[in-house]
Predict the 3D structure of the following.
Amino acid sequence: MTFVSQFMKQARVMAGDLRHRKIIRAALGNYEIARDQRKASFQSWESARQLAAETKWDALNHLDKYLVEFTAKIEARGTKVHWASTAAQARTIILQIVEEKKARSIIKSKAMTAEEIHLNDALEHAGLNVVENDLGEFIVQLRHEAPYHIVFPSMHLTRGEISELFQRELGSAPTNDPEELTMIARRALRKKFLTADIGITGANFAIAETGMISITENEGNARLTAALPKTMISLLGIEKILPKLGDLALFLPMLATAGTGQQLTCYNTMYGGPRQPGESDGPEEWHIVLLDNHRTELLADAEQRDALHCIRCGACLNVCPIFRNVGGHTYGTTYSGPIGSVITPHLRGLQDWKHLSNASSLCGACTEACPVKIDLHHHLLQNRRNAAVKKPTLKGQLGFKAFVQLANHPKVWAFAKKIARITQPLQKLVEGTPFDPAKSWTQTRNLPPLAKESFKDWWRNRK
Ligand code: SF4
């Protein structure tokens, strides 16, 4: 089955799944209210967005300089920096470190970049025990599922479903109490933290000025990941760079506001490398893996390079009517929703993933929600155009040629309208049958009746 047919099949099922829709609506029910309240605590949210976009623009325009600065500073404190051009290289680097350390168990905090390179599969294939320690990630890992959302990995599940999962997988007692469910996960995870050989994290930002990474989280699990195992590996995309430490004064509250409607996430930690002489905690070794994986190709795309501004807040997913109806897993990609539809064709191939750019009403809610002003809905249109130009389909070519002829010949256009008005009632007679010529549209939508009179005719007739 192709990616597009998988997507279409799953989207059809999910769009009719009212239970799923109810769960997602409930999960996001208070999000917009909380987010808007937090936005109000900025003197001007719009100015903050503009500044954030300009800061990321500067960071990306001088990425060569900032990456070298970041690397030099963090290496000076004993961190080993590795450069990975591809997902396969990143996996190999990490597997080599794991092998050198003779590690058997790994504890991992949430990192979408690790999902992007399918790191868990590679580690498990090598016989390692990998445990996700973010609560949502832990839940989806127990279900052998990918994260549903880049910020809320298990938002598609009810408390009852999580309780059943914990009873089955962890032998816990049934409960619907969120606090008790959290404690069950905590008890299971605490042992893993204490025995892990290696910790793996992602990073939200990498600061060039100080050579530090910044991790923002709500559970403290990333902190424990960085504090307990002797060896640490942080995997991050090269676009995570921010020029100055002071930029975090904008980006940390902005990420929390747009992502979860919080003023700040509970834990915001800066890491500058392994334990230094005289320090009492921290890992003995720290490795940073800087991942390209097609990011430099996107950087070279003058039209869409701002997609690299993304701070993975998830706001565009939360407001997207398509995401809310078809759900995160339907996309079949690491990054779902509008940003996923924009960047996946760059990361995994335009022709295989162009259908995601068609799964949009182009309402622009994503662009409006994006804190770093990525022009998301226009990028979806550009992907559609690029796909059509690079590999035109016969159907598309014929369709557009016919349209050009109609649009250039008003008499033919007027005649076609008349025919359409006469034949549309006939289409109603066959609607829902295999003989319906508009079947692909009417299967899931109503075909609106053509107006009895066009605007042009109405204008002419009113004299
Ligand atoms: S594209 Fe914008 S709104 Fe969407 S996740 Fe990235 S930063 Fe957030």
User: Anything to note?
Assistant: The chain is about 55% helix and 10% strand.
